[in-house]
Design a protein that fits this description.
The complex is a heterodimer of chains A (368) and B (357). Chain A is built from 17 helices and no strands. In chain A, helix 4 crosses helix 14 and helix 10 runs antiparallel to helix 13. Chain B has 357 residues and is of the alpha/beta class. Chain B contains twelve helices and 17 strands. The N terminus and C terminus of chain B are likely disordered.
């Protein structure tokens, strides 16, 4: 306390402190960091494999140059580039879908698959793989070697569409979004039960083929299939971007969102459709990839320090791509000995991330 | 919309508005029967009533969240039903009962959400939007909260920002449903003062439901009083005190409404009659202590001798001695009121008078 308080000083102290908008630098830096990691992982995912291709050569091949080693160009063009693009698209799609579901249900454990998308896809695949043509299935099973097999993708897409349609039909009739969540979970349980019954009565080779699908994989997606996957993920992602403003309002709860002029039923419907489309198309081509959709949104919020979807969505796209690519690199680690199941790697990366984020931010994420 | 205009005008009115809900298809349950209400700019209306009287239902119907059973609401001259969602949000803002529990959102960003009805598809704020947000934050005295994470704020601080968010909508009408529900005493009083200021200085029509009677009576310009049967009485707090409406709605066997002070007190079970002599604050506080433990201290009815007499002697600043005499027994000097009360509670006279037998 100063004894000599001059009059002007008092006038200054009387005026209210200036109200400042929060600093956005951290958010932009975070998005930049995710982008940098994603770019690095993209190159490394192409470099690593049964044959090591130095990153310098990878870059020169990617940018249209040629490389000293014959065969590298073909490996990059036909196998590793589509694989890395698939990983990036799937990671981005799942992360966007996860952000949407966590906001819609205001639940930190929500993810792309809460509405039964993955169980629906699993049922579709199980029906095709486990029961198709009881005899003479060997040819079909042989064709299943690559997961990009379009028949499996169609079966997965059909299964998830059926479940989604059922969930949407129910959600039109009920007022509470929590009810929709429970209905989705229960559909998932029913579908899982049917799948289990199918597995119990199936031949061992078929079960193995089904299990291999359920491990998840970014491999074997051809350029032709990317021509389906990429437009769907990019289109749905762009659609989600258009809803960012209203998703921000939904953070306060549906009633507050309505009081701010948001058409809650519409945003709910649009969000469920787009999130399911993203999760469904990813599952169709890459199988039920666990953890990326739940963990990446948390990672993005923790790094950015904001839940504003206008920053969170770009961060989720880049972070999702980065995590998926890192997981794909991790799956390659055994080298010539083979590859690890992708879902094992995503869980090994994802679970610690969720634990770290939740423990570190107990207070700020508690309510989310 | 210029909300700073001082001239009073009706900003919201209802005509024969009945609120309730459809329990099942074609089964309507009217909670509050048809009412005609008006809210003027600069008026702080408090909707008062016991729990379950239908306060929230009425407010939700007025703000258009819930369809009316019959009748309608007029907002700034237009029927509420005919307004688009965004236009409605530009005229009327709500602060709801539910607790917002989102983390990692700066106070400023929370308030900025209030600009949504005014911004484009991606919610980008222009210069004016930023000015309105800053002004709303200052208006609720929340400048120091702008950069804080709302997950780390106290309930009172968060409630302030929720009101700032409503102000950022630049509405003509502000509706608050039980805004004091989670607040401690200090925050409740501050909130009352804030609402009064928003109505009187900014010309907002404010409707605030509460079952916090003290706050309502101390700040409201108009009280809408709902009783358990959903009957509505309207008037200044003092009008309703005079007609006895408040006493009827809130009074119970144990509670008595003091119309003059506008407070409720426990209807005392008379433990005895006391006469207090002395003056100054110690004497007044002694009377209060005796009242609290059930003694009647006003003028004695004719022919009744006091059961207890207390002589208060001020012994210094903030210190006094209380000399107690009960009829027919010894005289005790108590150094403080706690001792005095203990003395009286242990008196056999108390037993004689307390019970009906």
């Amino acid at each position: 306390m100063s004894v000599v308080a001059s009059a002007p000083a008092e006038v200054v102290s009387d005026s209210p402190p200036p109200v400042r908008a929060p600093d956005r630098r951290r958010a932009f830096l975070g998005i930049g960091a995710f982008g940098g990691i994603a770019a690095l992982a993209f190159v490394m995912a192409i470099a690593i494999g049964s044959v090591w291709i130095p990153p310098g050569d990878v870059l020169s091949i990617l940018f249209g140059g040629s490389s000293d080693q014959t065969g590298w160009e073909a490996i990059v063009r036909d196998i590793r580039l589509p694989r890395s693009i698939t990983a990036a698209l799937c990671g981005a799609g799942l992360a966007i879908s996860g952000v949407q579901m966590q906001t819609l249900f205001r639940n930190p454990l929500a993810g792309p698959f809460v509405l039964g998308i993955s169980s629906g896809a699993s049922l579709g695949v199980a029906l095709v793989v486990l029961t198709a043509g009881a005899s003479g299935a060997t040819g079909f099973l042989a064709g299943l070697g690559g997961f990009g097999d379009l028949g499996v993708a169609v079966a997965a897409a059909a299964g998830s569409t059926v479940i989604l349609t059922l969930v949407l039909a129910v959600s039109r009739r009920v007022e509470s979004i929590a009810t929709v969540l429970i209905v989705g979970l229960m559909f998932g349980q029913v579908v899982l039960a049917i799948t289990t019954v199918l597995i119990a009565g199936a031949e061992p080779e078929r079960i193995q083929a089904y299990l291999a699908w359920s491990f998840g994989s970014f491999r074997g997606v051809s350029w032709d299939e990317l021509a389906i996957l990429a437009p769907v993920v990019l289109g749905a992602g762009a659609g989600v971007w258009l809803t960012a403003k209203h998703l921000n309002a939904m953070l306060l709860g549906e009633r507050y969102a309505a009081s701010l002029g948001v058409d809650v039923r519409r945003i709910r419907r649009v969000t469920v459709v787009l999130a399911s489309l993203l999760a469904g198309v990813v599952t169709a081509f890459a199988g039920p990839i666990a953890f990326i959709g739940v963990a990446v949104p948390h990672l993005a919020r923790a790094v950015l320090g904001t839940v504003d979807h206008r920053y969170l969505l770009p961060a989720a796209v880049l972070g999702g791509a980065a995590v998926a690519l890192v997981a794909e690199i991790g799956a390659q680690l055994p080298g010539r000995a083979g590859v690890l199941p992708l879902n094992a790697v995503t869980a090994l990366i994802g679970a610690p991330v969720v634990i770290w984020v939740v423990v570190r931010n107990t207070r700020s994420t508690a309510g989310f | 919309m210029d909300t700073s205009t001082v001239a009073t005008r009706t900003v919201l009115s209802t005509s024969q508005l009945a609120s309730g809900y459809r329990a099942r298809r074609r089964v309507e349950r009217v909670v509050v029967p048809p009412v005609d209400l008006t809210v003027a700019s600069g008026e702080l209306v408090t909707l008062l009533g016991p729990n379950g009287a239908g306060k929230s239902t009425l407010l939700r119907t007025i703000s258009g969240v819930q369809p009316a059973m019959s009748g309608g609401v007029t907002l700034l001259g237009d029927p509420l039903d005919g307004l688009g969602r965004a236009e409605r949000a530009r005229r009327l803002a709500s602060v709801l009962t539910e607790r917002v529990s989102v983390g990692q959102l700066a106070g400023y960003d929370l308030v900025a959400l209030g600009r949504q009805p005014h911004t484009g598809w991606n919610g980008v704020l222009d210069e004016r939007d930023h000015r309105v947000v800053a002004d709303a934050i200052v208006a609720v005295g929340g400048a120091h909260l702008a950069e804080r994470d709302i997950g780390e704020l106290s309930d009172g601080e968060r409630q302030r920002l929720m009101i700032a968010r409503a102000l950022a909508q630049e509405p003509a009408v502000l509706i608050l449903d039980e805004p004091t529900a989670f607040l401690d005493v200090t925050s409740r009083i501050e909130l009352g003062a804030l609402l009064q200021r928003l109505a009187h200085e900014r010309g907002l029509g404010v409707v605030c439901s509460t079952h916090d009677l003290d706050l309502a009576l101390a700040t409201a310009d108009t009280v809408w009083l709902l009783d358990v049967d959903a009957h509505l009485s309207i008037g200044a707090p003092e009008d309703l005190a005079l007609t006895g409406a408040i006493g009827t709605v809130f009074g119970t066997a144990d509670l008595e409404f003091d119309a003059e002070r506008g407070t409720f007190s426990r209807r005392p079970e008379i433990a005895g009659f006391a006469a207090v002599t002395g003056d100054g604050l110690p004497t007044r506080l002694c009377v209060r202590a005796l009242t609290r433990i059930g003694y009647h201290t006003d003028e004695l009815p004719d022919g009744v001798a006091p059961d207890v007499t207390v002589d208060v002697r001020e012994t210094g600043r903030g210190a006094a001695e209380f000399v107690v005499a009960t009829n027919g027994s010894d005289v005790v000097a108590c150094p403080d009121l706690r001792t005095l009360c203990e003395q009286l509670r242990s008196r056999p006279t108390l037993d004689r008078l307390a019970g009906p037998g």
